[in-house]
Write a structure and sequence with these properties.
mainly alpha; globular; Peroxisomal membrane protein 4; Pmp4
Length: 209
């Protein structure tokens, strides 16, 4: 049984389909790693109510972030595979944008606090990618900004905004990866490229490598 399973996992014919499975796994794991500590710190510093109520908030935020990333990676890779098959097994440059756009619309099109944070993070990296690249290695810098009485985006425009942002960042990652901020590039590498590689059941589902 284990030999048969190993043969299936390592069979190139099933690679594209198993890559979707591992992509979903990596998206979920990354979402938990990113959201849980953030939600925990925010609950400790700024949370209100009992600790039981705060734990529920942490759980809901972590769950939504993790599942949304898992769903997006699944849809993105699935749309890429469909387009590749439709085009006779050949991938086109525009495929990543189309797949990212559709995935962004379906997963992140609904305006929630978590989705808004993710989309704004993505679009900031998309916009930053148009800044000319320096010859020296990239260095991070942060500059806090204060906003008075913030208003949420109009939900109608946010849906389009989310779709275009995800389509753009997926195209950039595939075709102009050097222009993406290193932190985001590493996270995308983990979810979309590392999920293309495994050696056995352990590295398919339990460990990334």
């Amino acid at each position: 049984m284990s030999s048969l399973l190993h043969d299936i996992i390592t069979n190139p014919e099933y690679h594209d389909y198993l890559a979707i499975l591992k992509g979903a796994r990596n998206g979920f794991v990354y979402g938990v790693k990113v959201r849980f500590p953030h939600a925990l710190i925010m609950a400790i510093l700024f949370g209100r109510g009992s600790w039981e109520a705060r734990m529920r908030v942490i759980y809901r935020a972590t769950k939504q972030h993790a599942f949304n990333l898992a769903k997006f990676v699944t849809l993105y890779k699935s749309f890429l595979l469909v387009q590749k098959k439709v085009n006779g097994g050949k991938a086109r440059s525009a495929d990543t944008f189309i797949a990212g756009l559709l995935g962004g619309y379906l997963v992140f099109g609904e305006r929630t606090a978590i989705n808004e944070q993710i989309v704004l993070y993505v679009v900031s990296r998309v916009v930053a990618s148009f800044i000319p690249r320096a010859g020296a290695p990239y260095s991070k810098s942060t500059s806090p900004s204060d906003v008075v009485k913030p208003l949420p985006p109009d939900s109608r425009y946010f849906t389009v905004f989310a779709a275009l942002s995800w389509g753009a960042v997926m195209w950039l990652f595939t075709n102009r990866g050097e222009s993406i901020q290193p932190g985001m590039f590493n996270s995308m590498q983990y979810m979309y490229r590392d999920s293309e590689i495994w050696k056995d059941l352990r590295t398919l589902l339990w460990h990334n490598t």
